[in-house]
Each structure stands twice: as structure tokens, then as C-alpha cells.
Write a structure and sequence with these properties.
Largest sheet: 6 strands, antiparallel, barrel
Distance between the termini: 43 Å
Radius of gyration: 17 Å
Number of strands: 14
Order of helices and strands: EEEEEEEEEEHEEEEH
Number of helices: 2
Structural class: mainly beta
Shape: globular
Length: about 270
């Protein structure tokens, strides 16, 4: 059964909830990330007007001083309100109190909000922050890859997030998790997922090393000529860490024109 990677457990303020379920899982096979190691990682805090609670249910990446890249399926409402989304920056621990407000939400126009969802592709969204972020040891933006860049199968890359750490675990990790995952060839990925793997997707992961629920929107980063670049956005998959079923990511190079159009044309 295919799942989205959004973590929907509510938590108020900076508290960490407990669940008895085993479906909601996150970074598999990883460990705690050190302060400042992934300074572009952000957390998306979303307000539920029904329960009047905020929850950290997705990740994202700071790609410019005032812009965050995340997954379109993290923005679930058809007409989302900016006041219902805040972004946590520069911290590996969950922290709602220091989050910043979002001023604009741009979901990719080709994303299927009601039908196919992430499996239909174009699972990317941009969030404009209220003000530019000042870089520091703990906050920096990640470089986007050149359109011509290629990462062959087997390339070792990293994915990060705050999702649950294993199906058997019921506690959300308080600390950002990281795990190294290999890039998987498109043709190998299609052997298992079929034609659901489109040109704007890429696959990464291996048995016991994967992203999963709660990590949606987070960055998949690889080294390119000695510099970290973001090659993917956590999108969807079949369970977590299974052999032959790697995680599926939105391919960043497929969306470079769209990203640059909005970022450089925005007032």
C-alpha cells in the first residue's frame, strides 16, 4: 500500500506527542544530526483550525534567503492560509516557539491536489518567508544543482527529517535524523513501481535506509564538485526501507525554471 509522507499527528507548541500506531514512520536506519550540519533544513509547523493545534508534519529546505522548497502534498488545503504555516529554521530540535511566518504559498500548477497526489508528479511547492533570513553557522541555504548535473546510480546522498524512526517506534524523535542513501537507477525503480515513476521523479534508498512518513518535503542532498546541492524533495513510496522499493523524490532539476521564475520575479 502506497502512502504519503506527511505526518499528521498534532502537537501543541513545542511538545512531542505519543502515538500507539505503527504506520507513521520517518527516517529509517539513521541517527541524530549534529547542530549546524544541515543548516538548510527547515521544519513546517501547520495549524489545524479544527483542533486549534500546531504540528510539525513536514520538512523543507531553505534555498534562498527568503524562500523554502517543500512538497506540494504538505500543503493540503485548496486555498491555504499563510497564517496557518510557520517555518522552523536553524535547529535540530523541534521548536515551534522560534518559527517564522510564511508570507506566500506557491504550489506547482501541475500537482494533482485531489486525484493522483504525489504519484502524479510535480510534488513541489515554494514558501516565501515574511523577511529574508540572515545566514549564520546554523542557518544557510542549500545550492540548487545545475540543470546539466547528473548523479549516477550508487551515488551516496543524504536525507534528513523529523519523522518517526521505525514502524516499531511510537515516539517522535526530538532531534533531526539523518541517513545516507544511494541513488537508484530509474529503470530499476520502474521495475518495481512501474510507470508511476515519471521523468520528474528520482529514487534513492536501500533496505533499512530510507525516508518515510513525517519526512515529506525534506531535502535529498548530494555532493557535486565538492559542494552540497539539493537533488530531491521527499515525496512518496511503498512503506519504508523495504528491499527493491526505495523512496521516491521530486527531481529538483526538473523544476529549476519554475523555481527561478517565481523567486526572481517576486517583489
Amino acid at each position: 500500500m502506497l502512502w504519503l509522507l506527511v505526518l499528521t499527528l498534532p502537537c501543541l507548541g513545542g511538545s512531542v506527542p505519543v502515538t500507539s500506531g505503527t504506520e507513521l514512520v520517518g527516517i529509517v536506519g539513521g541517527h541524530d544530526a549534529a547542530d549546524g550540519k544541515w543548516p538548510w533544513q527547515v521544519g513546517l509547523w501547520v495549524f489545524d483550525p479544527t483542533s486549534y493545534q500546531w504540528s510539525l508534519n513536514c520538512g523543507g529546505s531553505l534555498i534562498y534567503p527568503q524562500w523554502v522548497l517543500t512538497a506540494a502534498h504538505c500543503i493540503r488545503e485548496r486555498n491555504p492560509e499563510t497564517r496557518h504555516i510557520k517555518v522552523q529554521l536553524g535547529q535540530v530540535r523541534r521548536s515551534y516557539n522560534d518559527s517564522v511566518q510564511v508570507a506566500r504559498i506557491i504550489r506547482h500548477p501541475n500537482y494533482s491536489l485531489e486525484n493522483e497526489g504525489p504519484e502524479g508528479g510535480a510534488d513541489v511547492a515554494l514558501l516565501k518567508l515574511e523577511a529574508p533570513v540572515q545566514p549564520s553557522n546554523l542557518v544557510k541555504w542549500i545550492r540548487l544543482p545545475p540543470a546539466s548535473s547528473a548523479f549516477p546510480p550508487g551515488s551516496r546522498c543524504w536525507v534528513t527529517g523529523w519523522g518517526l524512526i521505525a514502524p516499531e517506534e511510537s515516539l517522535l524523535p526530538k532531534n533531526l535524523q539523518e541517513v545516507e542513501v544511494p541513488i537508484v537507477a530509474d529503470e530499476i525503480c520502474r521495475q518495481h513501481y512501474g510507470n508511476r515513476i515519471t521523468e520528474d521523479m528520482l529514487c534513492a534508498g536501500s533496505e533499512g535506509r530510507d525516508s518515510c512518513r513525517g519526512d515529506s518535503g525534506g531535502p535529498l542532498v548530494c555532493k557535486w564538485r565538492g559542494t552540497w546541492v539539493q537533488v530531491g524533495v521527499v515525496s512518496w513510496g511503498s512503506k519504508c526501507g523495504l528491499p527493491n522499493f526505495p523512496g521516491v523524490y521530486a527531481r529538483v532539476t526538473s523544476f529549476l525554471p519554475w523555481i527561478h521564475l517565481h523567486i526572481h520575479s517576486s517583489p
